[in-house]
Amino acid sequence: MRYNMKNVTKTYTNSEVTIVWKPELCIHSGICFRGLNEVFDPKERPWARPEAATSDRIVQQIKKCPSGALSHYLNQEVADTNNIPVETETIVETFPNGPLLV
């Protein structure tokens, strides 16, 4: 069975932060699990376990996602505003003799 990944959004949360994953944006660079494999493990289900690291480490790793497939929001901010904030940041990473990840 094949799933249409368009408009799919998955969330994984601990008491402080919620990880938001949009699979249709994911380019499978592996930066997430190479940088924080105790949280992100594509061989496991669920593949993201936010309880396995501090919220600060999770946020820092999410900011390295080159495709924007991973984002986050702080649960307290949502409780305070009843509105999920959208954080975006453009990051360009270079590899010797290789591609640019934007």
Supply the key terms.
3-stranded antiparallel sheet; alpha+beta; Alpha-Beta Plaits
Report on the architecture of this protein.
- This protein is an alpha+beta fold.
- Strand 1 (10-13) and strand 2 (17-21) form a beta hairpin.
- It contains three helices and five strands.
- It starts with 9 loop residues before the first strand and ends with a strand.
- The protein has helices at 31-35, 55-62, 75-81, and strands at 10-13, 17-21, 70-74, 93-94, 100-101.
- Helices cover 20% and strands 18% of the residues.
- The protein is globular.
- The protein has a single domain (10-101), classed as Alpha-Beta Plaits, CATH 3.30.70.
In short:
With 102 residues, this protein is of the alpha+beta class. It has helices at residues 31-35, 55-62, 75-81; strands at 10-13, 17-21, 70-74, 93-94, 100-101.
